[in-house]
Each structure stands twice: as C-alpha cells, then as structure tokens.
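quick one
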Amino acid sequence: MEETHQTTCETGLMICGRTWDQFLIDVESFHGYPAPGVILGGFLVDLALEELNPSGLYDVIVETRNCLPDAVQLLTPCTFGNGWLKEFATGRFAITVYDPETLFGARAFVDLAKLATFPLLNDWFLKLKTKQEISSPDLLRTMKQAHRDILSYQRVVLLSAMPKIKSARLICRSCGESLPMHEALEVDSAPGQTPATGLCRVCAGESYYAVDE
Ligand SMILES: [Zn+2]
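structure w/ zinc ion:
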C-alpha cells in the first residue's frame, strides 16, 4: 500500500511541503549543518504525517534523542517545550505521530530490509564505515534518491495517552528551590504540609556542577 504514497518524481520530491533544496536550507539553519540524521528524520516525519493525515492537533513520540527531535521541531508545531513532542526511549530510529484524543497513530521507521538495497546508506546507518570513509555529497545524493524507499510505517494505537506529568511541587530543604514531587530524591514526612519539603537531586549529592566562587 505504501507505493501509493511514493513521490518518486525527481522534481516532485517534497518533505512536509518543502522542496528538497528548501528542506536542506531549513535543516542547516535549524540544526547548524545539513545532518543526514535530521534529513532522514524529516523523511520519517513526512511519511508518518501523511499516513495519519491528522485533521487537528497531533502529538509526536520520538524513540531516540539522536537527530529526531530536531526533525520534528523543524517540521511540526510539536516541541519538547510545549509538550506535544515526547520521548519513549527505545534507541530505535523511529517516530510515531498520533491523535491525542483517539490515540490512533502512524509509526514510521527505517526498514533494514529496504536499506540493504542502498549499500552506502546501509553502511552509514549501521555505522559499518566511519564518517571519514563516507562522502557527504554522495550520502545526501543517495538519501534524496532513496527517500521513502528505505522506510516503512505501521498503523498503531497508543496503549496510554502519555499525559504530561502533573505533580505537586515541593521545596528543597537545602537549596530552597522548588521542583515536582516526583523528581525529589527525598520527601519529608510532614502530613498535610503544603508545599511539602524534601531534597532535590543536586542537594542529595548528584550535582552536575560546582558553584564557582
Ligand atoms: Zn536542593
């Protein structure tokens, strides 16, 4: 069935309403350089959106933080900041676009059986060759040529709504800053006290910084 969605015509290749050249420019300005991973991510976003064809609001789940969030945040209104982009970390290079009301969605992924027919892309994607061994222009040219021929999708229904986590806030008794209850490493037992107090991760000894005094 996928073949009916193909846009194989050289001049007709569009990614979320952008021509190939415009897509590359947009990726470069958003990501800093035309990263093949963001380009491939854009193909996934484009395919999943077309397959789901949402009439209203939709959410997106990425399965890895590598490159995919930038593709989603470039091409859709969904960002980590507004909560419409979520992560379910499997490490797989795949995204799911879904309707948050019905939970029906479309998941697009890189299909290794199809990828094998493009040895250059296969070597790059599976890291069988180093970046130095693969010519960037060749890689981009082959990606453009392959486009959806290396992808597959499946219709899915989410098992839960993955709601934004709403949690009461707590005050850290050491630093005095506030945080969601579920992020605290310790919650003091003081029944009925609001806001509750406890200990944040940094004050419990898991800091990522030292104060420069
Ligand atoms: Zn603290």
